[in-house]
Write a structure and sequence with these properties.
single chain, mainly alpha
């Protein structure tokens, strides 16, 4: 009986919270309850996977350049360009439910955010062209330009990582 009452009370609290959050906003996004319950909105999961592909491809480009495998590097650059074209679609709605490093500034300055994604796509495509032309030194410069765009976007629209603990002395 106590469990039933507790369940009903929790359900009533959740429903009241949902009503307070408003009809147009997802309850999990409007309250810290989603994070407390370790809920992650499917859009957050999807965009995390998309964004995680960029560092993997950048590492592949760097390693391929070192090994002088420019065709492999071009494939990775093409993959970044394709993924970058998808970035605005993954950030269409103010979705912050769950563990995300996305900042609300994305939706407050959506046009700028989308422009940065377009710059990444353009720079990645340009890098692929240079790589396909066999210009290794040009590719190294194009890679730095592309990475600069990544950093510019992250500084504005991503929570900074927590500070690393100091190394023990001794």
């Amino acid at each position: 009986m106590k469990n039933l009452r507790a369940g009903i009370t929790l359900t009533a609290l959740l429903a009241a919270g949902g009503l307070l959050a408003g009809c147009t906003q997802n309850f999990w996004e409007a309250t810290p309850l989603g994070e407390a319950l370790d809920y992650e909105h499917p859009r957050v999961t999807s965009r995390k996977a998309l964004m995680a592909s960029h560092p993997r491809n950048i590492r592949a480009i760097t390693e391929a350049l070192k090994a002088n495998k420019l065709a492999d590097a071009a494939k990775a650059a093409d993959a970044i360009a394709k993924a970058a074209a998808d970035i605005p679609r993954h950030f269409r709605r103010n979705t912050l439910a769950g563990k995300t490093t996305a900042l609300p500034a994305i939706w407050q300055k959506k046009a700028d955010f989308d422009a940065k994604a377009k710059s990444l796509r353009t720079d990645a495509a340009a890098l692929a062209v240079v790589l396909k032309a066999g210009d290794k030194s040009g590719a190294e410069g194009a890679l730095k330009t592309m990475q600069g765009n990544c950093g510019a976007c992250h500084r504005m629209y991503r929570k900074p990582p927590p500070p690393r603990p100091a190394a023990p002395r001794g």
